[in-house]
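ERR on first pass: missing label on line 2. Operator R.T. fixed the label and resubmitted. Corrected input:
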Amino acid sequence: MPTVKFTYALKRFFPGLTQTPAQGQTLASILDEMEARYPGMRSYILDEQGQLRKHVNIFIDGHLIKDRTSLSDAFSSNSEIYIMQALSGG
Amino acid sequence: MQSTMLLGTRKGFIAYEFQQGQWKAINLSFEGVPVSIAYADPRNGTWWACLDHGHWGVKMHRSKDRGQTWEEVAAPAYPEGAEVKDGMKATTRYIWSMAHGGKQFPSKIWAGTDPGGLFVSEDEGNSFQLVESLWNHPTRKEGWFGGGRDLPGIHSIVVDPRDENHIHIGISCAGVFETVDGGKSWAIRNKGLRAEFLPDPSTEVGHDPHILVAAPGDPDSLWQQNHCGIFRSTDGAKNWEDIGQANGPAYFGFAIAVAEDNPLQAWVAPARSDETRTAIKGALCICRTDDGGKTWKELRNGLPQENCFDIVYRHALVSAGNAVAFGTTTGNLFFSADKGENWQVINNYLPMIYSVQFAD
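pass 2 clean. output:
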């Protein structure tokens, strides 16, 4: 079962955040699972049209996903899915 | 005098309280997070913070205990399929304005966003819905556009206290729109404005009001600080008259405030226009008119007059009674107890200030 890991920056909003096993077959369904476990999280990662936010990245097994719009990148049952904050700011 | 002041800043929500003759900071919330609007609903004292997380999107939080605790509510979001223009999905980029719906509608709250959406809540802000009538206005896709931001934005929502279904809104870059039926239908109210940056300066839409306000004592007296001057209407925005100084400082700027007790009295915060967007000649001044814009007085006593780069954003100049306050882009907060004749510094070391509001 894939494991979802999170940038520490999200702990500010979801203090109980920890790496979490997921069952979904698609990234979108996995994010729905994360939303159920950490209510409100989906809106931090995706915009209201379901697209990955501009300054958020998702890596699957160390590779940046290609489809930021419909989140169709494939993964396997033992993949590590890492949600990170793209570095920018001031 | 109202004894609380709320600030939305580049690095958080800050509240000040007037205690023993001084403004003292009493609350800092969301430290490090840009707060596009800090808003107090005068009907119930609820505080609102509109956040602009760089990474995590725009969010709304409210506090019913003056900032001691906050709860997140669902921020205005565009429905599936909504498009800014053909092929470009609409997502909320920035919450640029908030206004309560009036005493007649105690559960109603309005919010305006970039990319040009007006939202309404009918349940005290638990949820917001897009006002489709304005979003579907035939002028929007072709006639509204971005100015300083990439997309048009609704920064002003003016609810008429005599009839709270009567609302004016200000949009950069589109202009002023009016509804008399609570948002079911909209009329364009840009007659008399100039859009010097367009091929047709007297275009019907595409004007750039930077802020739109109404005189509290005379809601038909509307004022706007526009990209192309200062304009006033005395007939509910049906006609606009240029009242800016052709050769004086009171011309370009972002902010305007009208006196509670005198619809002829208003303040603006002049800036040097397109090329630099800085204080004029390195000196900060607020201009006040006492005669509906026929003449303007420069108020400088207590304000820096050299080496100054500050400008004042659209929601960051306010008046209440004899009190006037403003916050600047370089984090200076000034206060006057005598209608701007004399200024004192509250703080020189704040983050960039986006909004200032007096509250109880």
